[in-house]
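Q: Here's a chain of 197 amino acids. Please give me its 3D structure as tokens.
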Amino acid sequence: MENFIKQLASEAPVPGGGAAGCVFGAIGSAAAQMVLNLTKGKKKYAQFEEINVEALQELECLSNEFLYLKGIDEQAFGLVSKVCALPKGEERDKELQNALQTAIQPPYSALELSLRGLEVLQGLIETTNANLISDLAVACAGLESATKSCYYNVMINIKYIKDGEFCSFWSGKAKGCYDEALSKATLIQEKILQKIC
């Protein structure tokens, strides 16, 4: 993590915002896993054991997917940076358009993962250790940050893509996912705050 932070802070083009968004998602998923692991085996929550175990397994998968997409995002944006360094011309323009279209895929996939993570989180407020409710809030904050970061990275790439049909399709999908995820995050935060305050 320390190495990633140093690289992110440097003048190197990668890792960038998309990779950071994936890390936010992995951290959010991990915080929720901690809550589940500290709930596991507690008599008070025995009735929720099965659904909590399923949620834990899914969140473990999500964390791994986020970290996988972090690497893919770095590769994709690295390609964009390399193409941008080529001499200007028709061939460069064509390669750049292809690279930009490829570059939206990792953050869009991470955006979908963020939504799924929030859906899982929504079901944990009443099934997990009440003493760890603030940690669920941290999980929500991580997934909300991932949602925003990944959406912004999809849209900044779309801005420079010339294929109108492509842009319309992917911006619509991304906006729908973004809106739904933020709506869920708001509801989760409101429920948590009611229990904390």
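Q: Can you summarize the key feature?
A: The helical segments are 2-9, 17-39, 49-84, 90-103, 105-122, 133-159, 164-196.
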